[in-house]
Structure formats: structure tokens, C-alpha cells
Amino acid sequence: MLTLTLDTDEPVELRDFVGAFTSLANEFERFVDREFPNGHSDPKMFVREVRRGSIEADILTGLTVYALPTAAAMIDQAMVLEDFVRRWGGRFQALVLGKFASGELETTAELKDWADTVRSIAADPIASHRLEASTFHDGKREIRAAFKFSASEARTALANIEDRRNALSKPDHDSHARVLMVFTRTDVNDADLGKSSGERVRIEEISGSSLSLMYGSEVAESRIKHEIREADENVYKKGFVVDVIVKLRTGKPVAYSVTNVHDVLDLPD
Q1: pLDDT tens for the chain, residues 1 to 269
Q2: Are residue 45 and residue 153 in the same domain, yes or no?
Q3: Who has the most CB within 10 Å: 111, 120, 173, 260?
Q4: End position of a domain, from candidates 112, 145, 168
Q5: Is residue 244 packed enough to be buried (19+ CB in 10 Å), middle (13-18) or exposed (0-12)?
Q6: 3-state class of 19 per DSSP?
Q7: CA gap 92, 27 in Å, rounded
């Protein structure tokens, strides 16, 4: 089972207490869905003990995981719970540091669950939150993995969650007119409108990185492809004055869509 302990100096609001446990159950279900396509979980919470300064509850995961779709042999559930606690702790540490891997925490549901996880102790000056994976042998409890965080870390996590929400709420595109674009990689083949062309360009006014190029109009594509395929001069020594739509991901440019070409310039050596 999983055991969650909230050590607090101040009383915990009931909704924050419930949120700490339901968010953990939701995250466990996501973990099972990601890691075990043949798995199923039905987490249920049981309060073990409530005393001054501490609330302890067990979560029976209702976990069923088969090694293969046709196999009856069960995967070691204790190892699954150990892995979950370690990964859960790792995700929390990344959240505190404000470091997000690609695809991490990009839905409002996940962000809400992590906010609920930390909110129960965030307002308490000295509280802590501890998650354990444990098994029982001959009536004795054995802790297989554990992770603990403090109230100060919870407050940092809440601030980063809010920043993450703000970043995800930003527009997914931005427009720029008459910027200078240079090629870092070209492709003679045509590309469907709105699809990545396989080419990469740099627009210093927007980003110092080389990004993928898409074509937002057939006229713009025809003009640029002419310079790539038929012009006598090296296309890498040319600058294109263009209008672009900048595709954004969490507020950062990831691709350019050229909608208009105003001019083609010879760049100085």
C-alpha cells in the first residue's frame, strides 16, 4: 500500500486534506496508464490515524498488472509501488526547481492535482508531507521507498505551478512583419502548406536558435524555392525579408511559418 503522512503545526482545511489524497490517487492512475498498458488501478483511501500535529492515511491501490496480455503471472506490485514513489518524488523535485521535461505537466488536470498535493501544508510554517510504499510480512510493516518534502518546498512548488499555468495560457503563435530570415538547412522538395518542410532557418530578431520552417502561403513557398533550386548564388549567403507566424510552445518559439516574402538580399561576407 501507499501511506501518506501530513505532519502539521496548524490545522489542515478539510478540502486541502482530501485534495492531498485524491490528487495522489489521480497521479497513481496516470502512472499505471503510462507504464502498464495491461494494468488497472482503483485507489481507495483509508484514514489510519488523526492526532494532534499528524494525519496519516493508507491508499490501497487496487493495482492489477499482468506481465503479458495472455499471462497470469503478476508483476511484483511492491516494486511497482517503489517505482511510483521514486518517480513521484522526482517529478516533485523537478517542479520545485521549475524544470519540466517535454510533455510534463501540460494539462490543467495535472497542474491542479500537483497544486492540491502541496496546498495542504504550504501555509504551515513547519509542516511536512511524506509518502511511503510499504508491504507487510508476518504482520510487520516494511517501508520499501519514501519521499518527504517540506512546507517551504511546497510554497516554491505552488509558485512554479502558477508560472506553468501562465506559460501554458499564452497564445500558441505570434506574428512578426519584415524580419530577416537566413537558411541553416535547405530542402529542394515541396512541402504541404502548414507542414514542416524539413528546412531550418534563423531569425535573429526572434530567436538565436535555428528552427523548423513551414510555409503559410504558396506564393511565399514558390519565391523561396526558386532561390533554393534555380538561383545562381548560394542560398546560404542570402537573407529573406519575410512576414512570419511564430509557432510557440509554453511561450517559446519552436517553428516559423512564412506567409510573405518582401525581398531577397545578398548578405555581406
Answers
A1: 888 999 988 888 888 888 888 899 899 888 888 887 777 778 787 777 777 778 888 888 777 765 544 443 446 778 888 999 999 999 999 999 988 766 667 788 888 999 999 998 998 888 999 999 988 878 788 899 999 999 999 999 999 999 888 877 766 678 999 999 999 998 767 667 767 778 899 999 999 899 999 999 999 999 998 888 887 678 898 999 999 999 887 678 889 999 999 999 988 87
A2: yes
A3: 120
A4: 168
A5: buried
A6: helix
A7: 12
Nearest to 173 by CA among 259, 243, 244, 248: 248
Contacts of 261 (CB under 8 A, 6+ apart): 219, 220, 223, 224, 240, 241, 242
Contact present, 44 and 36 (Cβ < 8 Å): no
Q: What is the pTM of this model?
A: 0.60
Half-sphere exposure of 168 (CA within 13 A, CB side): 17
Structural domain count, the chain: 2
Asked which of 168, 198, 224 is the last residue of a domain, the reply is 168
Amino acid at 47: V
Residue 147 buriedness (CB in 10 A; 0-12 / 13-18 / 19+):
middle
CA distances (Å), 205 to each of 30, 60, 131, 202, in order?
40, 55, 47, 9
- Torsional class of 166: left (φ above 0), alpha (ψ -120 to 50), beta (otherwise): alpha
Give residue 147's domain range.
2-168
Residue 49, C-alpha cell as written in the block: 490515524
Using a 10 angstrom Cβ sphere, with 0-12 exposed, 13-18 middle and 19 or more buried, the burial of residue 233 is exposed
Report the candidate in 94, 96, 102, 16 with the shortest Cα–Cα distance to residue 55: 16
